[in-house]
Amino acid sequence: TTGIQPGWLVIVGARPGEGKTSLALQVALHNAERGVPVLFVSREMSDVELATRAVCGYAGISYTKVRRGSLQDSDWRRFLDAQGKLEELPIELYDEGVETVGQIRSRVRRSSPGLVVVDYIQLLRPDTAQARRDLDIAEITRGLKLLAKEAQIPVLACAQLNRGQVQKDGTMRAPELQDLRDGGTQEQDADVVLMLHRKDKDPRITQALFRKFRHGPSGSDDLYWYPDITRFADGLR
What we know:
This protein is of the alpha/beta class. It is 35% helix and 22% strand. A hairpin with a 4-residue loop joins strand 8 (219-226) and strand 9. The longest helix has 19 residues, at 133-151.
């Protein structure tokens, strides 16, 4: 895709537990490391939980061990070192009181980020409630696209998928655009729709499926999932 560009709305769709928040957080950190101010809007996790995940991924430390309090002294040193580095990055985690695109827009005007990440669409409310949920989602995604165009920044938004990909043999089929939960307006408003699909034969491999790319051909690539540090990589390590 040549990267995510100003004015684009990028949607990352996946089933629960397949890593959409982790991928979105990696994209946010990647940009922040390069000096791009990032606003990460979370409706699913607290800023403390997101920050802890980020530190673990940065330090290569097991998130589960941190939660259990079972780190060794050497792990703690790496954890604290990574925490210090992350505190210097221009990334703001915003999780309190945000419910609508209008509130996100107000925050953008105050902080002027170069990238906005929203986790996730289905947990937002429309600024004006509609009669049906699909119309609510239509207003939300349209608002996110308008925000990207008005501020001339990319907006990356996570989205849930419908629970309809189980095949007769018990395996999960790869998701398609129609599997985006609560209507197809997400597809219409987005410049890029990226879907994650964990392969049944090797759970370490996650397919990154570009189901829509407004500015070029669609395609796919394989990512490698490291659940202990909740991060993706281009190859096995």
